[in-house]
Amino acid sequence: EYIQLCKRYYSTEPETVDFLKCAEEARMKINSWVKTQTKGEIPNLLPEGSVDEDTKMVLVNAVYFKGKWRTPFQKKLNQLYPFRVNSHESIPVQMMYLREKLNIGYIKDLKTQILELPYNGNISMFLLLPDEIDDASTGLEL
């Protein structure tokens, strides 16, 4: 029944893999599937060594989206800005810059600002920025 549900709702089928004997072969097969699904945009999702004989399961989903911003970012304005890794630490990272009037809102229950970055058509990216971070970690890795 599980396999039928996967086919029906996700247009996919789970595969059995012997990670104990063929971990590298399985990794390459998964990467090949992801590369095909993303039209070559993600050629190496699982780096060498990420799957080994101790691996029990790999669950992968791939979505390909290549939209154009309604108001394109200008590359000449890209520069280093501080990026907050956690509540105590920032690092400089290359960021895009845009000076534009955009929709911004606030979600009281989440104590979070929400910003809409529109693409051409009727698709948008929504960015959430919490007022506070409860601990020293944001879940981001350096």
From TrEMBL:
Residues in domain Serpin? 1-142
Q: Which GO terms describe its molecular function?
A: serine-type endopeptidase inhibitor activity
Annotated coiled-coil positions are none
InterPro entries attached to this UniProt entry: Serpin_dom, Serpin_fam, Serpin_sf, Serpin_sf_1, Serpin_sf_2
GO CC terms: extracellular space
Spell out the PANTHER family in the cross-references.
Answer: PLASMINOGEN ACTIVATOR INHIBITOR 2 (PTHR11461:SF61), SERINE PROTEASE INHIBITOR, SERPIN (PTHR11461)
Similarity annotation: Belongs to the serpin family.
Q: What is the name listed in the Swiss-Prot or TrEMBL entry for this protein? A: Serpin domain-containing protein
Species of provenance: Neotoma lepida
